[in-house]
Amino acid sequence: MSKIVVIGAGQAGSSLVAKLRTLGHDGSITLIGAESAPPYQRPPLSKKYLLGEMELERLYLRPESFYADQGIDLRLGATVTGIDRDAREVILGDERLPYDQLALTTGSAPRRLPAAIGGDLAGVFTVRDLADVDAMEPMVRAGAHVLIVGGGYIGLEAAAVAASRGLKVTLVEMSDRILQRVAAPETSDFFRKLHGNHGVDIREGVGLDRLLGDGKVSGARLSDGSELAVDFVIVGVGITPETALAEAAGLALDNGIAADAQGRTSDPAIWTAGDCASFPHGAGRLRLESVPNAIDMAECVAENMLGAGKDYVPQPWFWSDQYDVKLQIAGLSTGFDRIVTRHDDGDAVSFWYFKGDQLLAVDAMNAPRAYMVGKRLIDNGKTADPAAIADPATELKTLLKP
């Protein structure tokens, strides 16, 4: 019987093995994870879990018993040291695990501050896995001063949690504005005001010169020459795809592990999905860092491992929770040249990204109807009249009519 091995026990890996069983694969399946916990959700780490509103077991994607019940060999706390492509074996220390097909769902890793500027001091954290948040949690106490480096969604979510728990929060973003890489100025303005209303000190166009402290961080010197006394630091300056195993095995890389339209790498026996994988998109390649992409691509790859021959067509969507605001994003805004703003009931607002007459993306803040309509339009390759979108008298569902 066919042996399938999956390296990486995150959202993509868990989704892939579950889909294989759903599709009727009756051969052996082994899922290998470096962490000791079974596959779990990562987005709540910087939200409800850090707030103390979600217990550990609720993070799990599936009960731990699911894997045994489905005949899936779940190897936790295991480090893969290599892939022997000629022998079709995964190397785990002294053990060699044979495979007929292999999937790499190795995810991504947070960028860390260089040791030369104090990045290795105690009290400097990233928000990527359970160990990060569990180590940080004792520091998250009312009255403590936290410095957050990076004004992307991870940094802003961490700022919201810290402010909600009564900490003094300073956030520095070296770009001209928060969210500059991923959102329009209108969205940046919205979240700058939101955080300001909750007492967060956001400093844009200001970078970190170095962290200060003897063994443990106690302060920071910023690029404008100012110094802060801080109790701990959260670093949110992006992530990089985990490609070391693939590179060592000689697989092609291109902004991640390079896959074809079906998720197959440069080795026909090896597949990839999730944060670590890039795939053809338009005239170039795309790598998406999101839970929906991890699930959808992994399930598509599972089908293709069993012979479906199906191209992966992404339908990007994302979300972020900050205070009492739920941000929902549909589409990809790259290349936009115009923003249309729509105000709905209460504090609901949405920003619609256009390139010429084509709708590219929607950022919806507490505006689920705007998000759902925008997503349906984008997924179906349709657009809408900008004037109608901006008019609060327009019933959004009418935009979906042929």
From TrEMBL:
Residue span, FAD/NAD(P)-binding domain: 3-298
UniProt-listed Gene3D superfamilies: 3.30.390.30, FAD/NAD(P)-binding domain (3.50.50.60)
Domain Reductase C-terminal: 317-400
Plastid among keywords: no
Domain of life the protein comes from: Bacteria
Record GO cellular component, one term: cytoplasm
Alphabetized GO MF terms: oxidoreductase activity, acting on NAD(P)H
Cofactor: FAD
Record flagged with keyword Plastid: no
Assigned keywords, A-Z: FAD, Flavoprotein, Oxidoreductase
Name of this chain's protein: Pyridine nucleotide-disulphide oxidoreductase family protein
